[in-house]
Sequence to fold (746 residues):
Amino acid sequence: MSDTPSSPITLFTDLNLSAPLIKALKDVGYESPSPIQAATIPSLLDNLDVLGQAQTGTGKTAAFALPILSRIDIKQTTPQALVLAPTRELAIQVAEAFQTYAAHIPGFHVLPIYGGQSYGPQLSALRRGVHVVVGTPGRVIDHLDKGSLDLSKLKTLVLDEADEMLRMGFIDDVERILQETPDTRQTALFSATMPSAIRRIANTYLRNPKEITVAAKTGTAENIRQRYWLVSGMHKLDALTRILEAENFDGMIIFSRTKLGTEELASKLQARGFSAAAINGDVQQQQRERTIQQLKDGKIDILVATDVAARGLDVERISHVVNYDVPHDPESYTHRIGRTGRAGRSGEAILFITPREKNLLKSIERATRQPISMLELPTIQAVNDVRIAKFKSQISETLAQGELEQFQSLIEDFEREQNIPAVEIAAALAKMARGDVPLLLDKKQQVAAATWDERPGRQVGFERNDRGDRGDRGDRFERGDRAERPDRGERFPKKERVVRAADPGMQTFRIEVGYQHGVKPGNIVGAIANEGGIDSKNIGRIEIYDDYSVLDMPDNLTGDVLDHLAGIKVAGQQLRISRDGGEGASSPAPAPAPVAARPVPARAPSAPAASPLAKAARVESAEVEEEAAPKKKKEKPGKVTVPMSAFRIEVGSNHAATPSNIVGAIANEAGLEAKHIGRIEIFDTYSMLELPDGMPPELFKHLGKVWVGGAQLKISQADRMPPESGKATPPKKPAPGAKAGFKKKY
Fold:
């Protein structure tokens, strides 16, 4: 049966909730239920199964928490309710909501269980007895396997944000948990969308559920004003700074696509005087919880986060959400902006989008059923007006605080001794207080900076946050803001496919990721070697086109291997690998002689790099069309010797680490060609390897957090390599004349 709530119920007191719950709701200022609450609570109180479809931020947590608490038996200390949530943050938040609503129920205990926290406190709490468990599927299964979680007397099971659990790959875990709960349980499933897999779960495990749909006129709340800024001319960070200065906001979440991107952006905002902090999957859980609490307490104003890290956050003071990097799909956008405008409050959502991403903007508008208006970037004069107003406000606040007598006396003495007017002394003191930071923006400098950024192909500074989709794996090298360049089609003619025969024993495969996704050969080699388990030496020629790529691999790959490779993501896109038949070629030329089955470095662009690092990091630029005809043999240039250093990583044979795992991870995460990684020696608990000299500190720090064989690399520099053993992986020989590795410049 299906029901769309019309909201005849106007007060929580009409819902037959227990007196302690009504008192707790009054304490937090809630009087009227939301539509999802008004429709769901009576059904759950009547012990019916519920299938609820509603967007995030509509009050789903109270919709299932209040009925559970109304029926709780304090004397029974084995879990009576289990809530499954897709992320740690959401699990913690739901548990906090239970605790708030149970403020007047003596002896009630709720326990959040999730990965990233030690088992000790969770096991102790389970032994003491809890009434409600809120957990992520993985950690719940761990406790079931250990026998520490007893679900034999479970009365209610809630699946919260089921579509998100499906998207994150937890649906098999959810089904296993469902199968280990009593058949007599009550089940409630809540989801923002209802894909076929979720519908199948509902049909299989729910008994004649009451279907409740909160129909919204739009896919997002009408109280959220949505605007976009088209990235052009001005650097994204400068544009963001202007918005932060001119917009009147309380708390803000800024979404970045990558883990490294969150840390870099938070650091740069801090350097510009903003109170900002970053959370992502690499931040320890305790630190993440402290950071979120600081945001709630007003100790920080800006949270820079990845999608997964911010999932389920409900912080009342969030007035603005900024999509610094465009989300991968409209659903992610909806979830992101749902962090503001919650529980009827108003909110602001700002989207940074590049010209080539305009199609995604249209998709978002269709999905949300709301037009997104263009944001007029605050002018320099508007920003200066805000700065002047703040400056005057600071003066007024300081005058109001008093205790200025000592300074007044000093100023009077200085004025009398130096014969300088007090107004000039005040101006000098103001300049001292500002330090090297100018009070007002200089229009000439801003125009010059914008003009510089508009130059196509020029690498400016060390920004690389607005590339194409890359998943949540961290930027490798910071480069100029590529998205601000003219579209690739404007700079070069479209690259034509030249079908070439693969070498004996090899076959050409097609993958559905290309230039427009921001992919490079190092991404492809790294992902296939690290996640696909194929040694990088077995990956041959790679050719990248606009929306797909082709590469050579052994012709004996099994169907199972190809199925696994098809699901691997590179630059935010699934490979969807298939055996190539030359499709997609435009104007194919006659095939020349077979090419050796290894990546062939293309010529580097002629534009000068912005820094020694950018020059050194330029590896295998495939943006210049390869010549179809065989090249004449040139004179052999002198060999380039790349200075190498020894490094230690904390993974070894005990972690099932192999040279291809290590090479693949470093190539994929650091953007370093596999041939530039030297000898590798693997020991029981650690490994030693050679890498080019001069790795940037931020890259070095990022590599330390990369996982191989279930352990973090924790990379550190060593004095020297151990003597070469018979099992050593020899260094790859660079192509003659190749500019490999990182070179220090003194």
